[in-house]
Structure formats: structure tokens, C-alpha cells
Write a structure and sequence with these properties.
The structure holds 2 protein chains of 2 kinds.
Chain A: E1 10-11, H1 12-26, E2 30-34, H2 44-49, E3 54-56, H3 61-72, E4 77-83, H4 84-87, H5 92-101, E5 107-111, H6 129-134, E6 140-143, H7 147-159, E7 164-167, E8 172-173, E9 189-192, E10 197-201, H8 205-218, E11 223-227, E12 230-232, H9 236-246, E13 249-256, H10 261-272, E14 277-282, H11 292-298, H12 303-315
Chain B: H1 4-25, H2 30-35, H3 37-47, E1 63-66, H4 72-81, H5 123-136, E2 143-148, H6 156-166, E3 172-178, E4 181-182, E5 185-186, H7 187-190, H8 196-202, E6 206-210, H9 216-229, E7 236-241, H10 264-272
Parallel strand pairs in B: 1-2, 2-3, 3-7, 6-7
Antiparallel strand pairs in B: 4-5
Classes of the chains: A alpha/beta, B alpha/beta.
Chain lengths: 317, 281
């Protein structure tokens, strides 16, 4: 069994900040817009190095989305930065009309997604954003798993033409993917070969899935682990090839089970290869205040929850 | 300047195009379209510096964004008659498989249109983005936009209006179509806008008024003044006083024709008040 090691916990938002800093140096068309959360989004370095390409819009997210759409019309590649809640639900109509329907090359970069935002509570913990964004025609939806991958994704989305949603978070999580990795939009990453169950995870739950696979291995259960960093377009082939071997699947995400990765996977399976599936996700609920670890435990978003779901799905084969 | 008589003839022809487009599909928005005909003709025929070939980035030319997308009939007519696409294509307005969607969109690649609009309140923001991009590109051209007055009820406008003044977006001219009407009735009754001039000024904009928004010469003169005000550290707002349904006596001064098409008899009457000048499509 392949071993993965945590090279030191880091927040994924800092991966975004590092990617944006690099883009500032390498791509003069990249501009950044922020709605009064420069520090939270780790956009400070870009702002300091390129003040002429940094736009502080204030607490006015709708205007930010419209401005970003307008800047593409001058050939710019705008990266908007605010919390996931205000990057999606608050401005859904602006994204729908001015960005997605208009086919604009805007990169919507969203931090503080999900319950792991922690103590701020449910008003700021959006668990519906992946669903909102994946329903928009033409929108690419990415949810990265660690610092290194977030940095690589940030660089990749600048090169890719079209509206993109890039989701990351606040807490420090295991950094285990390679530095300077190649990030291929729409291509799943196989992390572990296995035969008994497929674990498909996105975001920081990929690390939890790896931890779960190790423990399952100790119990004699062979789990295949796939990192889905791109929710849309979904790598259908990676999923179908895996379930042909294992015959059952667990999806894991920090998102409502309605509308997220699990639902996309179930559609692929229903259409091509009906397969037992269990959903590690929030169960149509809002979050609450607490530490990220407490919330992940309470809402069933960790390795233990994945192990439980894996055993259940195997019994349903 | 182009021959004024030619422009006046074009205004009348555009009115015919508007009426015939909405009549053909028994849907669309003639009222606001008729009210803004002189503005569109002045803008596209006289004021804007435009390139012959349409390019989405619009670098090296003036740009226009229509915020109140429901007045697409006047936009389509003037775009077509300014060479962006064949005038014949106006026949396809609101038909299935057409590039002339009910509300304008870039989706089907219609030359002359750079962003979708229809859901109100987003045009000033997009225009600010395009204006900021022009500054970054050291492209010394102007971004124009048009909003409805009722549209100012959307809060996003005031986010944008605040941004533009606070950040000295002075290569931007926002015109407000002040016709005092919206779907449900007079703006004054639906949700009063208060003193729009004082509001823009309080936000730090240069404001000028065109009292006769349906007088082509007055529009040309007013918009040239607005153009002269650009580049002075403030965004420019033009309060364009128009009459909804202008040019058709029974459509004027009422919200009744905001989103209603004339029947055969009404069309004939309306067209008789606007005799063909430059050739129907």
C-alpha cells in the first residue's frame, strides 16, 4: 500500500495566495478583485506587488462580479476573492447573467467554504456552493485538497479559458500532494489502488479518505482512493473504471449531500453502471459554531465516517 | 458630423423596426425602445469611436453596454443599421434559433454585444470593469452605458455608483433613461427614486441633464458635453429625459406599452405616423 505523508499542515487559502502571487509575476493579464477580505483570501502579496492590478471593491460583491465580467472585455483575467458564501449564493444572478451566460473568463475564488470555517457559524458556512456553481452551464467547478494542489490549481485556472469556480478553505489541513505538481482540470487523481471499495473524495476530505484507507487496510479491506479536484466536468471514466473493480463506492465532501460531488457521481453511476453508493456529506442541514475538528466529527466529515460508510456500502454489494 | 436629416430619417426608420419586430412575435418592449431611439442613433452614428470589425475585447474603441436589456428592439435595430449584422436578421427577433434573443446576449455571438443583460442592475458594474480595463490597457476611450430609471431601484447600482466615484473612473458615461415609467406604473408610484441628480452628485459624480431626450440635436449636444467632461477625475452621469413610446401618439406618456406589442391595426396606425425613410427589412 502506498504511503502518504503530511509535509506539515497548511491552509488551502494560502495555496491560493501563493498561486496568485506567482501569477502576478508571470501573467500580466491577471487582475485581482477583493471585497474587503484581502487578508482572509491571502491576496496581500499580490496587492503589494501589483497595486495597479488589484481592485478593492469594498463590501459590494455584486458589483465585484459585474466588474470582473467587464474587465474580461478588455482582455483581462480577473480573479475575484471573497468567502464562498458571498462568492456564490449572494451573487448568483450576477454570476449567472454577467459571467456564465455571457461566457466570461472570470475566476471566482472562494475561501472559507463549509463548516470548517468554524466559530463564525452557519451564516458564513456555505454547504451549497458546489451545487449552485455546477448547475450553471459552462461553469467549471474545482475544489482542492491541500496547499500544494490549491497553488497548482490557481496557476492552471489562469491558463484555462472560461468561467471557473475555485473553492478552498480556512483551516490548516495536511499538505500531502507534491510541490510543483501538474494540475489537469477535469482529470481525477488516483491515489490508492484497491479492490473492495472505491473512496472518491474532494477537498480536504481526500486526506481523510487516505487515512480511512490505511485503517481499512489494517482490517483487511482494500480501498481504492480517488481525488476528485474537479467536480465539473467530472472524470466519469475514472469513477466507472474503479467501480468495475470494486463494485461499490463512497463519496466524501464537505458539502450538502444534495447537489455536491456525491450527487454528480450517483448520476454517472445510475446512467452507466448502477452501483451501491454511500454519501459522506452533511445531511441537508446548516452548520453551527465550533472548532473545525469538532464540526467535522459532529457532521460526520472525517476518516471515521468514511470507514463506517465503506463498511456499510460493502455490505450492500 | 453626419447629415442631420439622414440621422432624423434613421430615427424614424428605427422606430419602424422596433414596431415591426415586436409585432411580428407579439412580444417585446416597444415603449422604452421608442423612447431611446434618438439616444441610440446619436451614440452609434455620431458619438462613439468604433472599429469596423467587431472584437469582443473592444481595445482601441469606445464601448457601449445596455443595462436595461429589455429595450433590445432599439439596440438590435441600431446595431444592424450601423453595420454590425445584416438588417434582414431583424426578422428573427425572438424567434427560435435566432441570435436576436428576447434580451441581448453574447451567447450566440451576435456582433456588437459584449455582455448579456436583462436581469436589471448589472450594467454599470460591467461598464466600470470595462472602463478599468481600458485604463490598465492605456486605451484612451470611453465606456458608455444606458440604464432605465426604474432599474435604479436595484441595489447593485449604488454599489457601482459608489465605486466609480471613489476610484475616479472618469472614462465612463452612464446615461439614465428618465421616462418615469416602469412595468407596474409610474416610478413615482411604484417606488419613488427621489432626486436622482442630487443622489448622483452626492455620490461624487458629474451630472448633466438632457431635458429633451427625444430631440436628436439636443441629445447630440448633451452627449458631446458629457464626453467633454470625461477625464476629469469623476464619472459622468447623463440624465436623459425621454417619453416612453415616443413617436407613436397612443403609446406615449403611459406605461401601458412597456412590454406589450401592437396588434395589426395598431401597428398600421403606428407605422403611418412613422413613414418609411431608409427601407424596411
Amino acid at each position: 500500500m502506498k504511503k502518504y505523508t503530511d509535509s506539515g499542515k497548511k491552509d488551502t487559502r494560502s495555496g491560493f495566495g501563493a498561486g496568485l502571487t506567482e501569477l502576478g509575476k508571470t501573467n500580466e493579464n491577471v487582475v485581482a478583485l477583493c471585497a474587503d477580505l484581502t487578508g482572509s483570501l491571502k491576496m496581500d502579496e499580490f496587492k503589494e506587488n501589483h497595486p495597479e492590478r488589484f481592485y478593492q471593491v469594498g463590501i459590494a460583491e455584486a458589483n465585484m462580479m459585474g466588474m470582473a465580467a467587464g474587465m474580461t472585455i478588455g482582455g483581462k483575467i480577473p480573479f475575484t476573492g471573497t468567502f464562498a458564501n458571498f462568492s456564490t449564493g449572494r451573487v448568483y444572478d450576477q454570476i449567472r447573467q454577467s459571467i456564465a451566460y455571457s461566457g466570461k473568463n472570470v475566476k471566482i475564488c472562494a475561501s472559507h467554504a463549509g463548516v470548517t470555517l468554524g466559530e463564525d457559524g452557519a451564516t458564513h458556512q456555505i454547504l451549497e456552493d458546489l451545487g449552485l456553481m455546477k448547475m450553471l452551464p459552462g461553469m467549471t467547478v474545482i475544489n482542492t485538497c491541500d496547499y500544494n494542489q490549491t497553488k497548482a490549481a490557481t496557476l492552471a485556472v489562469a491558463e484555462h479559458q472560461g468561467p471557473m469556480y475555485l473553492r478552498f478553505g480556512r483551516p490548516k489541513v495536511a499538505n500531502f500532494t507534491p510541490e510543483n505538481q501538474n494540475f489537469e482540470i477535469g482529470k481525477a487523481v488516483h491515489l490508492q489502488e484497491g479492490t473492495d471499495v472505491t473512496l472518491v473524495a474532494t477537498g480536504h476530505l481526500v486526506w481523510e479518505a487516505l487515512q480511512a484507507a490505511e485503517k481499512l487496510h489494517e482490517e483487511g479491506i482494500s480501498a481504492e482512493v480517488i481525488n476528485i479536484h474537479t467536480i465539473k466536468p467530472l472524470d466519469n471514466k475514472a469513477i466507472l473504471d474503479s467501480v468495475v473493480k470494486t463494485g461499490c463506492i463512497v463519496t466524501a465532501e464537505e458539502h450538502n449531500y444534495l447537489g455536491g460531488l456525491g450527487e454528480s457521481v450517483s448520476r454517472v453511476l445510475a446512467k452507466n453502471a448502477p452501483t451501491p453508493q454511500e454519501f459522506v456529506a452533511t445531511q441537508d442541514t446548516f452548520g453551527e459554531s465550533g472548532t473545525p475538528e469538532q464540526l467535522m466529527e459532529k457532521y460526520g466529515l472525517n476518516a471515521n465516517a468514511i470507514i463506517k460508510a465503506a463498511k456499510k456500502v460493502i455490505s450492500r454489494k | 458630423m453626419a447629415d442631420l436629416q439622414h440621422l432624423e430619417d434613421l430615427v424614424v426608420q428605427v422606430r419602424r423596426d422596433i414596431l415591426r419586430q415586436v409585432h411580428a412575435v407579439n412580444s417585446g418592449h416597444p415603449g422604452g425602445s421608442l423612447g431611446c431611439t434618438e439616444f441610440f442613433v446619436a451614440l452609434y452614428q455620431e458619438l462613439m469611436e468604433r472599429k469596423d470589425d467587431f472584437n469582443m475585447d473592444g481595445i482601441g474603441e469606445d464601448l457601449f453596454f445596455l443595462s436595461n436589456g429589455h429595450i433590445s428592439p432599439v439596440f438590435y435595430s441600431v446595431l444592424a443599421r450601423s453595420g454590425y449584422f445584416p438588417v434582414e436578421e431583424l426578422k428573427t427577433f425572438r424567434h427560435i434559433d435566432s441570435r436576436l434573443q428576447g434580451h441581448p446576449t453574447t451567447h450566440e455571438g451576435l456582433p456588437g454585444i459584449r455582455v448579456a443583460s436583462g436581469s436589471l442592475g448589472q450594467g454599470i458594474s460591467v461598464s466600470i470593469g470595462a472602463a478599468e480595463a481600458k485604463k490598465l490597457n492605456k486605451d484612451n476611450h470611453i465606456v458608455y452605458t444606458l440604464c432605465g430609471d426604474g432599474e435604479l431601484q436595484e441595489g447593485q447600482n449604488w454599489e457601482a455608483i459608489m465605486y466609480a466615484a471613489g476610484n475616479k473612473v472618469d472614462n465612463l458615461i452612464v446615461s439614465i433613461d428618465l421616462n418615469g415609467q416602469q412595468i407596474d406604473g409610474a416610478t413615482q408610484n411604484v417606488l419613488p427614486l427621489g432626486n436622482v441628480k442630487e443622489k448622483f452628485e452626492a455620490f461624487g459624480w458629474d451630472v448633466l441633464e438632457i431635458k429633451e431626450g427625444n430631440n436628436l440635436s439636443a441629445v447630440l449636444e448633451g452627449m458631446k458635453k458629457a464626453k467633454a467632461k470625461t477625464g476629469n477625475g469623476k464619472p459622468v452621469c447623463v440624465l436623459l429625459h425621454t417619453v416612453m413610446g415616443n413617436g407613436v401618439d397612443f403609446m406615449m406618456h403611459t406605461h401601458a406599452w412597456h412590454g406589450k406589442a401592437p396588434n395589426d391595426e395598431q401597428l398600421e396606425k403606428a407605422l403611418s405616423q412613422n413613414p418609411e425613410t431608409l427601407g424596411d427589412y
